[in-house]
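Exercise 7.
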Amino acid sequence: WPPVLYGAAILVAMGLGLIAPVALPSLGTLVDRLVVPFGLTLLAAGAALDGSAMWTMARARTNILPHRAATSLVVTGPFAFSRNPIYLGNTLMMLGAGLAFGNAWLIATGLAAAILVENLAIRREERHLEARFGPAWRDYSARVRRWLGRR
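Solution. The predicted structure, written as tokens, is:
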């Protein structure tokens, strides 16, 4: 379940940060000064993307829980440029927090969580959406990439 995977990734990163901290590499004074603001920006952008996607799903009156059947195919708002804006937002928040707080483990476990979510949840969700919405899903998935961008 995606929230559990991202939550576990955060806990593992925080635990590893205490046991075996890994600092971000220095990239030069100017770049180093920009890392924290950039990380905070990514963190905020991820949270905004999550909120926007949830709001769009609520407006469409569709189910948001990943373990329940979809009641409608949402293709507007952030779903117009990502088939998985909530998972993308979660990943951006983890990457941003890793940069902002100097915890490289958050970056590593955030990327690991994204890979696990794709293989354990997204592919299953896509099979469900194709079975439920048929041609409308196939048209949408041909236009919009899984993580980010239009085709």
